Amino acid sequence: MASEAQATESATGLPQLDFSTFGNQIFWLLVALVVIYFILSRVALPRIAAVLAERQGSITNDLAAAEDLKARAVEAEEAYRQALADARAEAQKIVAETKAAIKADLDRANEKANQEIAERVAEGEKALAEIRASALDAVRDVAKDVAAELVTVMGGKADGRSVTAAVNARMKG
Amino acid sequence: MATDAHGAAEPGLVFHPMDQFMVKPLFGDGAVGIFTLTNVTLWMALTVAAIFALLVMGTAGRATIPSRTQSIAELAYDFVRKMVEDVAGKDGLKFFPYIMTLFLFILFANMLGLLPMAFTTTSHIAVTAVLAMMVFLTVTIVGFVRHGAGFLSLFWVSSAPLPLRPVLALIEVISYFVRPVSHSIRLAGNMMAGHAVVKVFAAFAPMIVISTGIGLLVTPLSILAIATIYALELLVAFIQAYVFTILTCVYLKDALHPHH
Amino acid sequence: MEGDIVQMGAYIGAGLACMGMGGAAVGVGNVAGNFLAGALRNPSAAGGQTATLFIGIAFAEALGIFSFLVALLLMFAV
């Protein structure tokens, strides 16, 4: 190798085709490759694989935890909704009961008032009828008196019974 | 140019686009033996150091919420692992450290080679050929160990009509043996070409020293070109590492599941 | 003199070999363009095919790199 290097001085020709340096290059290349291989397979690749696996694990864990929290949040919301619906139903019930009670009171009061009004109306009518009857009697008496006076003035003799009959007949119309 | 371009003080532009690829001893000026410390040694050591810094020191925190370096290390890990799993299948994951080694070595060697004054180890056919032969031998050995003679069914296209099969088998065998060649030359050629082009443009840049008139036009243009090619080279450095790795996965898939 | 002619031939050959790179450029453009056309028609399927895209580009461009290599060999190694 060395004698060949002397023979073909590397100044001429393509350096890549200078066979005298091949042994050197190949030797150092193999050394470098072996070193890299051991660095990678002993230290670097297992370490990176471990880091990646760990990260994957923690991501999975975090995702699971997030899922859990989300489920809990959904549950809480559900409970809140339920409570809200219950409260609303209760309120509705109370409102309906109160309304019914008020209505019943109102009806009773109405009834009573109607009854009173009816009583008063009946009383009034009775009084009116009495008043009318007494007024008719008064009119009749006045008419009898007036008729008897008239007959007397005209020179006749007033017969009480016939005057009364005549007035009654007149008043019947 | 090949023989007499290396004179000391020649006038005009100096083109040595290939000098950057020369393997030189780090100390002294002697011949390059097998164990000599050369610039190859230096830059491969830097590659190893960079990988160590990213994947070991970067992940030293083992944080669940990663730091920046740790994210990059995890990104690289996921990227290669997913590639192996998608292309070669679940049983290809046994080879994941091996493929990760190839990917990181090529990626970091390419990227470090883009530093100014750097030496690009992956631009040498010797280096890429060893990488490609390693892949080739691994794939072949795994294929035969897993499937015995059944691995040869890779070359016998059973879905083709019978008279065509011998022809196809010949083509398949040839293409199988050309794989390491194209695999290695693609990487080395890409790296070499890009760096040589940058160097050629760099040689045009001092034109303004020689002739102000032409230089006013040429120098800014060549500097712009260097910047552009450099950006492209950054992309190429990554894509070549990616392509080398994914082709390794594809070949590995052939070895693990040879039936078409 | 004879060496000069050989060198001239080598340089001309290198230049000719560089034309192969144009073919590789066409090929890479073809791969990328067709991928884009397909990806725009069915964007959901495009993501899974990027690996195939890069493999195709790599194969197409490797041949251009071969011609570049031939050019380099002619310039520096012959």
What does this structure look like?
The complex is a heterotrimer of chains A (173), B (260) and C (78). Chain A is mainly alpha-helical. Chain A is built from 3 helices and no strands. Chain A has helices spanning 2-7, 22-153, 160-172. The longest helix of chain A has 132 residues, at 22-153. Chain A starts with a helix and ends with a helix. Chain B has 260 residues and is mostly helical. Chain B has 7 helices and no strands. Chain B has helices at residues 39-57, 68-88, 96-113, 125-147, 165-204, 207-210, 212-256. The longest helix of chain B is centred in the last third of the chain and has 45 residues, at 212-256. Chain C starts with a helix and ends with a helix. Chain C is mostly helical. Chain C has helices at residues 2-41, 43-46, 50-77. Chain C has a single domain (14-77), classed as F1FO ATP Synthase. In chain C, 92% of the residues lie in helices and 0% in strands. Chains in contact: A-B, A-C, B-C. Chains A and B meet through helix 1 and helix 2 of A and helix 1, helix 2, helix 3 and helix 4 of B.
Which H/E pattern describes the elements of chain B?
HHHHHHH
Overall tally of domains of chain A: 1
Cα distance spanning the termini of chain A: 171 Å
- Binned, the helix content of chain B reads 55-70%
Biggest protein-protein contact in the assembly: A-B, 45 and 52 residues
Secondary-structure map:
The complex is a heterotrimer of chains A (173), B (260) and C (78).
Chain A: H1 2-7, H2 22-153, H3 160-172
Helix pairs in contact in A: 2-3
Chain B: H1 39-57, H2 68-88, H3 96-113, H4 125-147, H5 165-204, H6 207-210, H7 212-256
Helix pairs in contact in B: 1-3, 2-3, 2-7, 3-7, 4-5, 4-7, 5-7
Chain C: H1 2-41, H2 43-46, H3 50-77
Structure in a nutshell:
By secondary structure, chain A is mainly alpha-helical. Chain A has 3 helices and no strands. By secondary structure, chain B is mostly helical.
List keywords for this structure.
heterotrimer; A: 173 residues; mainly alpha; rod-shaped; disordered N terminus; C: 78 residues; F1FO ATP Synthase; 3 helices; 0% strand
